[in-house]
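just leaving the lab so this will be short. below you get a single protein, a line of residues and a line of whole numbers that encode the local backbone shape. id like you to explain what the token line says about the fold, in plain words if possible. thanks a lot i owe you, the record is right below:

…
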Amino acid sequence: MKRDFFNELLKWRDSSRRKPLLVTGVRQCGKTHTLKEFGRSCFDNVCYINLESSNNYAAIFDYDFDVRRIIREIELLEQCTITAGKTLLILDEIQEVPRAVTALKYFCENMRELHVACAGSLLGVALRKENISFPVGKVNRMQMFPMSFREFVEANGGEKYLELLSGWNIHREIPEVYARPLEQMLREYYIVGGMPEAVQEYVNTHDFKSVQEIQDEILSDYADDFSKHAPTAEIEKIRLVWDSIPKQLAKENNKFMFSHVKEGKRAHELEGALQWLKNAGLAHMLELVQNAEIPLSAYADATYFKVYMSDIGLLCRRLGLGYKDFLDETDSMKTFKGAVVENYVMNELTSYGKKPYFWRSGNTAELDFLLEENGEIVPVEVKSAANTQAKSYRQFCKKYNPRRGWKLSLKNLAVNDCEGTATTSLPLYLTWKL
């Protein structure tokens, strides 16, 4: 399956500013597979090392940081030849050998011509441990996410729709012959999500039950990670926060409340657990902005936020939603649909490098997302159905007079004026076009 991340790797390979690469991202989102495919496709040979698999590799980095010696010993252990410009050296699960992270500084300074790419399931967590000396300024960093909806469509043979809509006139409605299949795929994506193994299973079998079995295995692996990699004092807190995320998303006011995680627990007791989940790539946090001014980051309230899961399929699995719920609009679906669609849009924006916030004006209005683009504030309203009536969006436009904005829903393409703001109604299946 093609990944957009592959193109970012190509840019890294050819960059004049290239340094050793650190790839972070949630477990099982495709980091290792994509790096190996990148190596096979774009280099004469690949030297892949899993630093979790043997203590021999740790011993190589324990001695000193002479990169030429390190390379010689790797070549002897792996029975391979590593040549700068022709070999991609992949160091997987690098968080298991902290001195290997530190060694990247010396690869940058003394062997920059060699392409070194590193990844780790919990690298985002491990980098914050005190015993890792991080090579500041000596590495390039990228974050990988589960497959986006656009990637899901391509994996399911929908390239023709992507190609057709890539240059679509925004003032022209999308005919049903294109809209219906894309709406169908979006419902499928809500259930399958973007974890590559689940997507591949769905492409092969179109069996939602098999997909759910894979999702259960992934969720079980995440739970194991809490026990293996989290500080002992935080394990139970992490489990409590993790279990609380889908429940709090489903509430009408889905601000994340530490007091709702467990009765008697206070914010200062649980903040570290939530940060662990964020660092592990399992959760995204959306902060409140009440004064929508540039830069948004300066006006964000880090104490008032919503929390989303990093994969929409895993969220639906944890909520107990199936494909039939989306088709028949069951009571469960009516309860959770808004949260699911909002989480979907959050993941799409994040996967394309956006840093969204949300806006609230007292208890009278709330706007789902705010983006900052080229010195402008861009409001984004999200609706789970075709109804695009949005009082809060109108109130925001009236107060701040943004030049342009977006309404995401199941309504067809349209461009309208809202309180002087050029507003584009964009189908949810085209969020990647935003």
Summary: Residues 387 and 411 are 7 Å apart (CA to CA).
